[in-house]
Design brief:
Number of strands: 17
Structural class: alpha+beta
Oligomer: single chain
Strand content: 25-35%
Distance between the termini: 40 Å
Order of helices and strands: HHEEEEEEEEHEEEHEHEEHEHEEH
Number of helices: 8
């Protein structure tokens, strides 16, 4: 049952390109999906998409997952036709070696991150690698590159999404796998008691910017954010640093570096998981922020909770999540929203 969901849609979402501020291609997919499962869809000036299912009460819940993936912007084209780039989001420069990219210029063109072969290195390089030191090689002469690429063009990683055992691996699972879970829940929910705003946010990877704007515009009574979380359950990492484990179920967030979730909210999420027999685990994330924080205090204090999908190798092109954990997240979100009647007391 590891893939008891629409894998084709997940593959389409994760393989699409959309760096912070330029989520257009992903936004088109999201709008198409939400138009079939909600009562109305709108897009704000930043590019956030909100699909709303109208409930019987005035009480409203916002569910948020971000559309953007980490990527790059071209900042300089050398006289030899190589591209220098600026990061959009948090990258470890070491993972860029020998990777293939797509440069979105006059047309989409393939490039590679250049690196010096070890055969020609006289000694080990000194110091930490920086993203700004990397260059993109388009395999063309300078004149051809000048016709195709300009400063400000976007660069994304080139990778497919595939099944790997009981897991899914590819690029941009952060956060398209949670965006997918949100879209699946919107499909499955029927006649909720409360109004639900399904929010696909922008620019999360550069400071939770889209969610912060939506916290004002949507102004929900309760907000639930969805994002991936660290699963470092691999050799060489001590158990206290695993954060979560692949295959142990949806993760119910208590904290990350941007938010401490409302105790009564995460306790109710946990009780729903227990009542419905949904596999779950507790997440205490030492570092990293999520859209949860964008809703907590933007327009006055609001109760917030978060459900995460455990994911290995975050911010690489081989991000990996377990199929059963994905299904558990869809089920938990759906059950929580269907049981929300606006009468639960989340006050402190």
């Amino acid at each position: 049952m590891a893939f008891d969901f629409d894998f084709d849609l997940l593959k389409q979402l994760t393989e699409e390109r959309g760096v912070p501020g330029y989520e257009d291609r992903v936004r088109d997919l999201v709008r198409e999906e939400l138009e079939t499962s909600t009562d109305g869809v709108r897009t704000d000036a930043m590019g956030n998409v909100v699909g709303t299912i109208e409930g019987d009460s005035d009480y409203s819940v916002a569910v948020a997952a971000h559309m953007d993936e980490i990527g790059f912007m071209v900042k300089h084209v050398t006289d030899d036709g190589f591209l220098k780039i600026d990061a959009l989001g948090g990258w470890d420069a070491r993972v860029l070696r020998a990777q293939r990219v797509t440069v979105h210029g006059e047309e989409d063109v393939t490039g590679v991150f250049g690196s010096v072969p070890p055969h020609t290195l006289d000694e080990e390089p000194d110091g930490e690698e920086e993203v700004g030191d990397r260059v993109v090689d388009l395999g063309r002469d300078a004149e051809a590159v000048e016709e195709l690429v300009s400063v400000g063009d976007l660069v994304t990683m080139d990778q497919t999404t595939v099944k790997m055992g009981d897991s899914v691996t590819g690029k941009a699972l952060d956060d398209r796998v949670c965006l997918f879970a949100m879209l699946e829940a919107a499909r499955e929910i029927e006649n909720p008691d409360v109004t639900i705003h399904f929010c696909a946010t922008v620019q999360e990877e550069v400071g939770l910017r889209g969610a912060t704007a939506l916290g004002v515009d949507v102004d929900p009574d309760l907000a639930i954010a969805l994002d991936v979380t660290i699963a470092s359950d691999i050799p060489g990492v001590s158990a206290d640093k695993h954060v979560t484990e692949l295959g142990d179920g949806a993760a119910i967030k208590l904290k990350d570096s941007s938010v401490i979730t409302t105790p009564k909210v995460h306790k109710r999420i946990t009780s729903v998981a227990e009542e419905e027999g949904i596999d779950h685990q507790i997440e205490v994330l030492p570092s990293g922020g999520t859209d949860t924080a964008g809703f907590q205090n933007t327009n006055g204090a609001k109760p917030v909770g978060a459900i995460s999908i455990p994911t290995r190798y975050l911010h690489t092109v081989t991000e990996t999540a377990n199929g059963d954990d994905i299904r558990a997240t869809i089920d938990l979100l759906t059950a929580f929203l269907e049981s929300e009647d606006g009468e639960h007391d989340y006050s402190l």
